Amino acid sequence: MPERTRLICITCPMGCRLDVTHEGHTVLEVTGSTCKRGAAYAQAELADPRRMVATTVRVRGGVHPLVPVYTAAPFPKPLISALMAALRQIELTAPVRLGQVVLRDALGSGVDVLASRDLPAAGQQEPPARHSSTITAGK
Ligand code: SF4
Question: Which domains are assigned to the chain?
Fold first, then answer.
């Protein structure tokens, strides 16, 4: 028996409101999308919803007590709470390097968690600001 689910596509800032007809995880029809990525988003959201995750992890002996980290790829949405709990248990030792693996293969997902900036040890000079790749906050 087909079901209808309403979703908001978060693939781009347009935020199209999708009306999805599906049987289980199989999408039968998508209306409301402005482009074909909307149907792909609906299929992924029903079968394997994922989000980028950005947060902070504690650092011992650094110029700051926390370093920002992010998932290197979209992470399974049902596991995000467990991921946050796992990251709260981690304390890195300064210095931390941009791109350093903070948690490899997080919760067996195949996704690594990486540091998104350099963090020198206390007493070392802060590096000049530089930008890493775009990080999308989880929704
Ligand atoms: S359906 Fe296309 S235009 Fe609409 S939010 Fe998704 S990606 Fe953007």
Answer: 3-47 (2.20.25), 54-115 (3.10.530.10)
CA distances from 64 to 6, 37, 94, 96, 130 (A): 43, 40, 9, 11, 17
Task: List the residue whose alpha carbon is closest to atom 1 of ligand 1.
Answer: 38
Distance in Å, CA 8 to ligand 1 centroid: 9
pTM above 0.85, yes or no: no
pLDDT for the residue numbered 124: 81
